[in-house]
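pasting for the record
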Amino acid sequence: MQPHRFLLISQHPALAELVGDALGQELRITFANSSAEAVNLLRKQDCEAVLLDARSFHDCSEIRTEWDGPIVLLVPRGAKHTVLSGYDGGADAHVPIPCDARELLARVKSVMRRTGSD
């Protein structure tokens, strides 16, 4: 079985490393630091879902104009404003962090099933 291919947009290197370490066996994760870099990567390679960290949620609407796959926000627990802004920008779901790596993977796979990209 091929690993799922995700794009993580994060301006926080520690989060990118944590997600990569936690999910690296199940997923092939490509990292981007900005929406411009992400859009460029999405044009060049197949991706099943985009993960955005809380510092990158403002990139959601730009990603959405260029790509119609699932977008999942990774947000600190209780960050309601970030969650609402992300949904307004086109996000499909959010995952409160910190969370267990298995929970993150299950939530993202659930969004992929609902959006038909699994």
